[in-house]
Amino acid sequence: MTSEIKEKEQFEIGVVGDTETGSIEVYDGEIKNVKSQQLEGTEHAVGLDLFQEVLDSDLKYDDKEYSKIRRKIDTWLLPVLCITYMLQFLDKLSLNYASAYSMKEDLGLVGNEYGNIAAIFNVGYLIGSIPANYVIQKLPVAKYTGVALFVWAILLIGHIGATNYSSMMALRFLLGLMEASISPSNMMMCAMFYNKREQPFRMCTFLSMNGVATMVGALLAYGLGHATNTSLQPWKLIFLVFGIMNLVWSAVFLYIAPDSPANAKFLTHEEKLKVIDHVSKNQMGIKDTKIKPDQFKEAMLDLNSWILAFIGLGCGVINGSTSNFISSLIKGFGFSGLNATLLQLPTGAIELVVVFAAGMVALFTNKNVRVILLFLTCIPTLGALIGIRLIPLSEKWSLVGCCWLLYIIGGPVIMCWVLINVTVAGSSKISTVKIVWFIFYTAGNICGSKIMYANEAPRYDSGMKGLITCYSGMMFLCIVYYFLMYYRNKKRDAEYGELTPEDEKEGVINGFKDLTDFQNQFFRYVY
């Protein structure tokens, strides 16, 4: 991380949302004067003992000291999230890479059966996302995710035993079921260790690993496609190699990944106190393990949940189409299977740069830019889709260039996750909003893999029209969302007045009481 970023992040201390609490040279545990008895009703809060110790102690540290702790978290936790996300995205791309070789012929796939295999993964993901979000709220998140990693690695290796359409359908369904926990768990772990200003950059960093996965996967698939003196076909080697990579990483993950700041091996006891104090400024606590039905109801009645869910639906349709059919698109423009695989390298590089850049903008900008970034990252891909529909087939390199822009969908996806993390409070409410979002996103993935009709190759006109409609709808919803958040903040300021330092202290306590953003009058939306 550059010194410029470190200097920028020094100003994050003392900031709740985008409301500046003043120039603070010494971070002296602003909440330490709050009496312990105000913590009634927090018995299910993770890290409560440490938070209690923060309240009862004279905790002092300056900006420079906390920047060292942040760097330590970035050194230990962020690479774990990045590698995990890269490997699970390789799993998703494995079917796309395998389709560039003889998989369809070897399994006897005809008509839209390949599309069905692509879709069934998302059916499993949809079903798995409902319990997964509540399970990671109840159980130690890192341990649960590590076990899930191990199981899906075994399932991926099991793909080499598929002999027909039915067996591949079963394996893809189970793989989707197990992978449903990875994105929510990464979001939760990020929220536990970083404040609202720090989260977008970190979340964009680990999601930008999708771009790295695309490049690494394309190179591996290209190399494995040249393997001739083996007993396994190239498409089976892809599943085997990707599966072994996940299997090895599952052991590393279980050893390194922390369940919360309270049991992070890489932090000293004093550093844990400072992290708890720092993150508590989010007014969301760390995590509350009690499932609360009233928060479920509130989430279902919150317009915030549904706007994000419908944006997620659009993201899913786009992702389901591009991640499973980009090889078919490029092959249709006149390239061989091997070259179609290799030509996906730039898609990964573009996604890496765009998503990482979005995180940098969010980090270096004090204002509410997250929804604006979501809107802006839709524009290049919308133009690319129009290009695929209109550019003559004779201009195959221009068409391939349009395909390279399709993976920018990672930008809107991660901004949705950031918005969930910073605009929703209450552990059960957050879990519910995530469930709704991932249900819509996964349903979109299913639809996306079904609107690409084989008889419409190479342009897949119905699919392109559907994706253009999705992007247009998402951009409209971004505008609605921006003004909804703006109105809510203005209404709260009018009712309760602008936040004072004392209000912010009370808001921190409310966060550990697991109050929702509706219940906590001191909560302000960051968007």
TrEMBL record:
<feature type="transmembrane region" description="Helical">
    <location>
        <begin position="237"/>
        <end position="257"/>
    </location>
</feature>
<feature type="transmembrane region" description="Helical">
    <location>
        <begin position="173"/>
        <end position="194"/>
    </location>
</feature>
<keyword id="KW-1133">Transmembrane helix</keyword>
<dbReference type="InterPro" id="IPR036259">
    <property type="entry name" value="MFS_trans_sf"/>
</dbReference>
<feature type="transmembrane region" description="Helical">
    <location>
        <begin position="206"/>
        <end position="225"/>
    </location>
</feature>
<dbReference type="GO" id="GO:0016020">
    <property type="term" value="C:membrane"/>
</dbReference>
<dbReference type="Pfam" id="PF07690">
    <property type="entry name" value="MFS_1"/>
</dbReference>
<keyword id="KW-0812">Transmembrane</keyword>
<dbReference type="InterPro" id="IPR020846">
    <property type="entry name" value="MFS_dom"/>
</dbReference>
<feature type="transmembrane region" description="Helical">
    <location>
        <begin position="306"/>
        <end position="330"/>
    </location>
</feature>
<feature type="transmembrane region" description="Helical">
    <location>
        <begin position="466"/>
        <end position="484"/>
    </location>
</feature>
<feature type="domain" description="Major facilitator superfamily (MFS) profile">
    <location>
        <begin position="77"/>
        <end position="527"/>
    </location>
</feature>
<dbReference type="InterPro" id="IPR011701">
    <property type="entry name" value="MFS"/>
</dbReference>
<comment type="similarity">
    <text>Belongs to the major facilitator superfamily. Allantoate permease family.</text>
</comment>
<feature type="transmembrane region" description="Helical">
    <location>
        <begin position="114"/>
        <end position="134"/>
    </location>
</feature>
<feature type="transmembrane region" description="Helical">
    <location>
        <begin position="397"/>
        <end position="423"/>
    </location>
</feature>
<dbReference type="GO" id="GO:0022857">
    <property type="term" value="F:transmembrane transporter activity"/>
</dbReference>
<keyword id="KW-0813">Transport</keyword>
<feature type="transmembrane region" description="Helical">
    <location>
        <begin position="141"/>
        <end position="161"/>
    </location>
</feature>
<feature type="transmembrane region" description="Helical">
    <location>
        <begin position="76"/>
        <end position="94"/>
    </location>
</feature>
<feature type="transmembrane region" description="Helical">
    <location>
        <begin position="435"/>
        <end position="454"/>
    </location>
</feature>
<protein>
    <submittedName>
        <fullName>KLLA0A04081p</fullName>
    </submittedName>
</protein>
<feature type="transmembrane region" description="Helical">
    <location>
        <begin position="371"/>
        <end position="391"/>
    </location>
</feature>
<keyword id="KW-0472">Membrane</keyword>
<feature type="transmembrane region" description="Helical">
    <location>
        <begin position="342"/>
        <end position="364"/>
    </location>
</feature>
